[in-house]
Design goal:
Largest sheet: 9 strands, mixed
CATH class: Alpha Beta
Order of helices and strands: HHEEEHEEHEHEHHHEHEHH
Length: about 325
């Protein structure tokens, strides 16, 4: 127990130092360490986009924080659905979901301006959720939407809820896939493994082992193609894990403005939470009106691990709660 406390203290120092450093510097003008690294990552991005089994177009939206790259699928005039990626991921991570979702909705899969993907930050940093909300509203104004449905995975789930707290009138319905923290603290193993794999002699091989654990051992040939791109983003990217606004756990009184319909789906394998049922109980306490479910035999990347089940659950929820608006 004493050693565990020491390790937590060390990780805390790393986090605090990372945040302090971030407060005194701007996000780099590019999201990659070099033009060569960017070219490698963009090439693997394009390779991952070959998994996109539906028509799409690419767009760049200019905001005060830079040019946001977005992959758009689905019929024009359909209700909008914005997809926010997990940490170090980007629009490509939705390859297993977009075909189903785009049959009914105008889907906007976003490359965030704080890591990875093809977005181009302006140099004005996104350091907190207020900045994120300003950016989000700029994107909505560009497409002339007054409100939209939003879905996210992991860090993107937290971000979706954080945005809903800031601008609840802009988000009509909210889908959260295996949120990291948000309603409950992650297990201690996440701290240990994060410290070991990302801060002590980090390497591509160690990143692979970490994410294999996060997925509960799940893999398939399509995911492996996408995963290769994610590893490029981590290896060649200029933005670190602590250089983005940090997620946290919200108390019920901090979520009183969340009145829109909410769906929370979580993986049932004990990976980021020692007991996922404790997490779902915390989510139900924080958002009593939300629909909350565990997906059996599933790790953290449930949108790829169980795409048919997740897609159906998302579409059923949107049909019931969003299309009627």
């Amino acid at each position: 127990m004493k050693m565990h406390g020491i390790m937590l203290a060390i990780l805390g120092v790393i986090i605090l130092n990372g945040c302090a450093l971030h407060a005194n510097k701007d996000i780099p003008l590019g999201l990659y360490k070099s033009s060569e690294g960017r070219a490698i990552s963009h090439k693997s991005y394009d390779k991952a986009m070959k998994l996109w089994n539906t028509e799409y177009e690419e767009d760049w939206v200019t905001t005060e924080y830079g040019r946001t790259h977005i992959i758009i699928s689905g019929p024009k005039g359909a209700k909008p659905l914005f997809l926010l990626p997990g940490l170090f991921a980007d629009a490509t991570m939705w390859y297993a979901n977009v075909e189903a979702l785009a049959k009914e909705y105008r889907v906007y899969a976003v490359d965030l301006l704080v890591y990875g993907g093809k977005s181009e930050p302006s140099g004005r940093p996104i350091t907190n959720i207020t900045s994120y909300a300003e950016w989000f509203q700029s994107v909505l104004r560009h497409y002339e939407y007054t409100h939209t449905a939003v879905a996210g995975l992991s860090y993107g789930s937290w971000l979706s809820l954080a945005l809903a707290r800031e601008v609840p009138n802009k988000i009509a319905t909210l889908i959260m896939l295996d949120p990291s923290e948000t309603f409950a603290k992650m297990r201690g193993a996440m701290l240990w493994k994060g410290l070991w794999y990302f801060t002590i002699f980090p390497s591509r091989e160690k990143y692979v082992k970490f994410f294999e654990w996060m997925g509960g051992g799940y893999s398939d040939p399509r995911q492996d193609i996408w995963f290769g791109h994610m590893l490029d983003v981590i290896e060649y990217g200029s933005v670190g894990m602590m250089d983005v606004p940090q997620h946290r756990v919200y108390t019920p009184d901090e979520l009183e403005m969340i009145k829109m319909p909410v769906l929370v789906l979580a993986g049932a394998k004990p990976i980021i939470y020692k007991d996922p049922t404790v997490f779902t109980e915390a989510a139900a306490n924080a958002l009593p009106h939300a629909e909350i479910e565990l997906i059996s035999d599933t790790g953290h990347g449930l949108n790829m691990e169980r795409p048919a089940e997740v897609n159906k659950r998302m579409l059923d929820f949107l049909e019931k709660e969003y299309r009627r608006l």
